[in-house]
């Protein structure tokens, strides 16, 4: 299992790096304004993906009969229907979306993006079925193949088109390749069938996640919408550059945690003691990953912006660490969200994100009163922190999961985020000595956090012992 975890983490990391490289390449080859327009394509795709998502792939992993042919063919039909509906909505909304961003002449591009949900709806679900057995090779090959081919096309398309259209065609090529590879590498024949019982179960499982998707869109892309519609495309280009650097590792870590821990937690969902131990380990792992990522951003953020994007994106530097704090808290929230999903308590992430959603109208009001991009990020951090606390409290109340073992890790995490925030707000001397002091403080904070996470350390030791002994099922936790 350790080998599978490392393989999954490495592949997700490589995919994120390639995606990041692609976005940086396009950003450097086109103007800041055109990159701002290109970033709205991600906003639009998220609008359709998150607002029509019943999480059928996750249901197939979580439910006990998800591996059957009948269940798989049923959810594949539901997914195809969802994709067709999403495509229709995207096509009809293209005009208003273009007007919202102040680029009505780009409406045709948003209409063409309607092909993305349609193609994604036709993907084969066999790669998700195999995750039930902790077999990740197929989905790794599908995702890596799509990303690498799309990235390889980014340079010639950017040189040829020299504007936002390069990103449009790259995204279409990536989704087409993803769907084709999912069929080529599948072990089962692709089928559709309609089962009213499965459809009803999918609705019960998925409607909170559908509402959560709507909330996630407004949260995940709402800040970009506010910047693009109320401040300007050049500012959106800077903001998107910093946000891209923050989101890339966040997506990798969140996806890895979900793919790795959800099957294990689902297996022991009816065994309270084993579930509780694994819940604490997975939640502490999420908290640790979020803090580590943020502290690394303090050390390397300014260097990365200048090296990767160039001088024209210099205004993105002050935003970066604060955006990493918000994303670090989002990673921490993944721990309780995965545990709740394993218990089929899909209302937990929905309610938590509803709390995060409350930050958006506050940010909008601040902008109308003369606030800027930094104000939006401060409000986002507060919203993410509130959502994390609410999610943990709901799990404690609804699933009787312990909170006390998380109290010290949460306190040290809060201290680390406070240190990172103060570093971004206080202008410090750019010297080797100052950087070394920051690095030393980072080591101290990480060591203290790891010391406080008893359950995570026990789980890691258990994984290592299983690996040394040559295998075994690592669903149990030893203490």
Textual characterization of the structure:
Mean pLDDT is 81; it is low at 472-479. The chain is mostly helical. The chain starts with a helix and ends in a 10-residue tail after the last helix. Helix 4 (69-100) runs antiparallel to helix 6 (115-121), helix 10 (196-220) packs parallel to helix 15 and helix 14 packs parallel to helix 17. It has two domains: 1-220, no CATH class; 249-471, no CATH class. It is globular. It has 20 helices and no strands. The protein has helices at residues 2-29, 32-50, 56-62, 69-100, 107-112, 115-121, 126-129, 137-161, 165-184, 196-220, 222-230, 233-267, 272-308, 317-342, 347-357, 359-368, 373-399, 404-425, 432-452, 454-469.
Annotate the secondary structure layout.
Layout: H1 2-29, H2 32-50, H3 56-62, H4 69-100, H5 107-112, H6 115-121, H7 126-129, H8 137-161, H9 165-184, H10 196-220, H11 222-230, H12 233-267, H13 272-308, H14 317-342, H15 347-357, H16 359-368, H17 373-399, H18 404-425, H19 432-452, H20 454-469
User: Poorly predicted ranges (pLDDT <50, ≥5 residues)?
Assistant: 472-479
| Helix/strand order, N-terminal first | HHHHHHHHHHHHHHHHHHHH
Using only C-alpha atoms, the radius of gyration works out to 22 Å
What is the tally of helical segments?
20
Keywords summarizing the entry:
Teichuronic acid biosynthesis protein TuaB; 479 residues; mainly alpha; transmembrane; Poly_Biosynth_Transport; cell membrane
């Amino acid at each position: 299992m350790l080998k599978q975890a490392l393989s999954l983490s490495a592949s997700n990391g490589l995919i994120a790096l390639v995606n990041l490289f692609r976005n940086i390449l396009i950003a450097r080859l086109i103007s800041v304004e055109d990159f701002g327009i290109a970033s709205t394509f991600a906003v639009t795709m998220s609008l359709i993906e998150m607002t029509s998502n019943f999480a059928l792939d996750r249901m197939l992993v979580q439910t006990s009969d998800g591996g059957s042919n009948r269940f798989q063919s049923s959810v594949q039909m539901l997914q195809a229907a969802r994709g067709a509906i999403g495509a229709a909505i995207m096509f009809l909304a293209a005009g208003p979306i273009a007007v919202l961003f102040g680029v009505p002449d780009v409406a045709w591009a948003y209409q063409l993006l309607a092909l993305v949900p349609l193609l994604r709806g036709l993907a084969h679900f066999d790669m998700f079925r195999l995750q039930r057995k902790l077999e990740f090779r197929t989905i790794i090959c599908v995702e890596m193949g799509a990303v690498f081919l799309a990235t390889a096309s980014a340079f010639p398309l950017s040189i040829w088109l020299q504007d936002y259209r390069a990103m449009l065609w790259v995204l279409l090529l990536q989704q087409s390749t993803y769907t084709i590879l999912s069929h080529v590498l599948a072990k089962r024949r692709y089928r559709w069938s309609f089962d009213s019982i499965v459809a009803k179960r999918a609705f019960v499982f998925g409607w909170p996640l559908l509402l959560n998707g709507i909330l996630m869109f407004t949260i995940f892309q709402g800040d970009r919408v506010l910047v693009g519609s109320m401040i300007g495309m050049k500012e959106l280009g800077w903001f998107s550059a910093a946000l891209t650097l923050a989101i890339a590792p966040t997506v990798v870590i969140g996806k890895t945690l979900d793919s790795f821990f959800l099957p294990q937690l689902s297996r022991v969902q009816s065994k309270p003691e084993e579930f509780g131990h694994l819940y604490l380990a997975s939640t502490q792992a999420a908290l640790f990953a979020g803090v580590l990522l943020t502290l690394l951003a303090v050390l390397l953020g300014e260097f990365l912006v200048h090296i990767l994007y160039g001088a024209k994106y210099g205004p993105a530097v002050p935003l970066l660490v604060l955006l990493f704090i918000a994303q670090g808290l989002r990673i921490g929230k993944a721990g309780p969200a995965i545990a709740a999903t394993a218990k089929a308590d899909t209302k937990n992430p929905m309610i938590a994100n509803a709390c995060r959603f409350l930050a958006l109208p506050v940010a909008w009001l601040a902008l109308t009163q003369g606030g800027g991009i930094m104000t939006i990020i401060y409000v986002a951090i507060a919203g993410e922190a509130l959502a994390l606390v609410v999610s943990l409290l709901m799990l404690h109340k609804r699933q009787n999961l312990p909170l006390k073992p998380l109290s010290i890790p949460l306190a040290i995490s809060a201290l680390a985020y406070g240190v990172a925030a103060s570093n971004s707000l206080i202008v410090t001397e750019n010297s080797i000595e100052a950087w070394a002091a920051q690095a030393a403080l980072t080591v101290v904070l990480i060591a203290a956090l790891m010391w406080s996470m008893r359950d995570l350390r026990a789980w890691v030791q258990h994984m290592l012992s299983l690996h040394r002994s040559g295998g075994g099922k690592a669903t149990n936790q030893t203490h």
